[in-house]
Known about the structure:
Elements: H1 42-46, E1 51-55, H2 57-66, E2 71-76, H3 85-94, E3 97-100, H4 103-110, E4 118-123, E5 128-129, H5 130-138, E6 146-150, H6 155-167, E7 172-176, H7 185-191, E8 200-203, H8 206-215, E9 219-223, E10 229-230, E11 240-245, H9 253-256, E12 261-264, H10 276-291
Parallel strand pairs: 2-3, 5-8, 6-7, 6-11, 7-8, 9-11, 9-12, 10-12
Antiparallel strand pairs: 1-4, 2-4
Helix pairs in contact: 2-7, 6-7, 6-10
Amino acid sequence: MKPFRAKKPGARAGRPPSRPAAARPAQMRPAPTRSAATRPDEPRRHQAKTEEMFHGLRACEALFARRAADVIRVYVTEARKRQFAKLLDWCARERKGFQIVADENLARLTGSIHHEGVAILAKTIRRWSLDELLRELAARKTVGPLLYLDGVQNPHNLGSILRTAAHFGVAAIVGRSGELPPLSPAAVRVAEGAAEFVPVCDSANPVADLRRLAKEGFRIVATSSLRGGPLGKAKLGGRIVLVLGSEGEGVSQPIEAVTTECVQIPGTGAVESLNVSVACGVVLAEAWRQSH
Length: 292
């Protein structure tokens, strides 16, 4: 018979006793990054309806340059930390939360793999009213042609049009309330910063508002792929509203009824129409050429 031996507290039969806690290797933890958030998914859980997680290099650069007061929290990857050092320094001074995050965390935060290494939780971009636009036009604080988008509902098309509009000096983009796409993070990213420069206006009654603009001295010129005079022969300078319709339906009948004239972009006819953002670029380039 083997002699009885008392077991050490916590020991199990058949297993060697564990090492004392002091002998275990210490688990290294990274130093916490200065941030108002404790988890990289916190903004999505606590994001208000009046806030958006904007992302993309040019979009975030323009946001910080044009409306820093609207910034709530900033996220950058390690690779973009030096590029956005000025923004991070500003966050530290202004007590705004910021965090250095991994690519995969930023993709989860933004819901996009096209975040380009930076995201800013900020207040949404405010939409203008037509009254506000007219006051800005009367004060000459806003100049250039106006764009009216009739039935354009794709946010990526809106983003592309905003980018083109900023390049060619458009004063504002107008569209029917509830129909014109919101200035979502995807649209703002595609706009490459232009969403901070070109105001977007909601129109509750497009026909009445276009007639009002006509009384203010604006010519209402619609584009069409089926009829109208050649674009190059139309007069596109001065106070003008350029109307672009959707790719499927074109300009609607009620809107076309209040236009001054209709123009079309000449081409081979091999395709029925151009993408609305491409057509916008062609028309605005001609308007710019005539005005400069």
